Amino acid sequence: MLSYELILGAALVGALTFYLLSGGVDFGAGIWSIFACGRNGHKQRALIDQAIGPIWEANHVWLIVAVTILFTAFPAAFAVIATSLHIPLSLMLIGIVIRGTAFAVRTHDITSRADGRSSTPKIWRSLFAGSSLVASLLLGVNLGAIASGRLTVASRSSESFTDRFIAPWLATFPLSVGLLTTALVAYLAAIYLLVECREPELRDVFKRRAIAACCLVFVIAAYALYEARDGAPNIYQGLRQTALGLTAIVLTITLQAAALFTIWNGRERAARRFAVAGTVSMLWGWALSQYPFLVEPDLTIYNAAPPVTLKLLLLSLAGGSIILFPLLFYLYRLFKGRFLIGA
C-alpha cells in the first residue's frame, strides 16, 4: 500500500532524475566547452550556447524541488546530510553560482577581434567550463557519500573534524561516483548536442565524443560498482544479490549498449532515447537498492515528518505541478520543439 512517505520518496528520486537529465546535462555541455578549441572551436561554443541558453535557468527548478522535499518531508535526513556534507555541498553550490554568473555575463562581455569576429574574454569561458566540471563532480561525490553509509547521525566526542566532515566524502567510493556522474552528464550532453547539430563537421566531432564518453561511463561504472563492495556494502548487496538490483544492472547495460550502437549507426534520436532510459535505470536502480534508507544505515523514509506535514507537502506538490509542468512543456516546445519532435 502506498504511504505518504513512499510517494514523497519517489518524488524526491524523480526530481533528482529530472535534474540529472536537464540541469546535469547543462554541466556536461559546459565540460565540452573545455575541449572547444581549434579552427571550429568557436562553432562548438556557439552550438553549446544555443543549446542551453534558453532553458538552463529553468532546469534548476528540479534541484529546488528535491531540496524542498528533503527538508520538509525528511528533516532528520536533511539535517545529517547538510551538516556532515556541508563542505562539498557548499562547494557545489558555489560552483553552480559561478557557472551561471559566467554564462550570463559572457553573453554581454563581447570584444571585437582583428579578423572582424566577436569573442568572449577567455576568463568567462574558463570559469563556465571549470565550474561545470567541479559542480558535476561534487554532485556525484555528495550522492556517493550519502550512499556509502559513512554519515553519522550523532557526533561522538572521539570524532575529530576530519572524521566527521572530511572522511565521509573524501574517500574512494564517493570520488568514483563523482567521476561517474561527470562522465555521465558529459555523455548525455554529447548526444543532446549531436541531435541539435546541423553541420557535418561538428556532427562528426560530437559523435566521436559521445562514443568515447559512453565507453568511459561503462568503465567508471564498473569501477564504482567494484569500489562499492567496501565503500557502500549495502548498496553493493542490493545491486548484486537481489533480483531487482540485477535487473537494473542488466537493463542499464543493455540500454547503454543500444545507445552506443545507434550512435555508431547515425541514429541520434534513437540514441538519445536509449541513453536517457539507461540513465534513468541506473539512477533508480541505485535508489531501489538503497530502499528504504535515505541515509545509510540509520535513517529511512519512514523516519519522516508528522503525517499532517507530509499531506500538506503532497497537496503543495500536486498544486505546483499543475502550474510547473505546463509551463515547462511550453518552454521546451517553444525553444526545443523541432529537436524533441519524434524523440
Give a written overview of the molecule.
- The protein has 343 residues and is mainly α.
- The chain is 77% helix and 3% strand.
- The protein contains 15 helices and four strands.
- The chain has helices at residues 4-21, 23-32, 41-52, 56-59, 61-73, 75-84, 86-106, 122-148, 161-165, 172-196, 200-231, 233-240, 243-264, 268-290, 307-340; strands at residues 111-112, 118-119, 293-295, 299-300.
- The strands form two sheets. A two-stranded antiparallel sheet has the order 1-2. A two-stranded antiparallel ribbon has the order 3-4.
- A hairpin with a 3-residue loop joins strand 3 (293-295) and strand 4 (299-300).
- Helix 5 packs across helix 6 and helix 10 (172-196) packs antiparallel against helix 11 (200-231).
- It is globular, with a radius of gyration of 21 Å.
- Mean pLDDT is 87; it is low at 112-116.
Topology readout:
Elements: H1 4-21, H2 23-32, H3 41-52, H4 56-59, H5 61-73, H6 75-84, H7 86-106, E1 111-112, E2 118-119, H8 122-148, H9 161-165, H10 172-196, H11 200-231, H12 233-240, H13 243-264, H14 268-290, E3 293-295, E4 299-300, H15 307-340
Antiparallel strand pairs: 1-2, 3-4
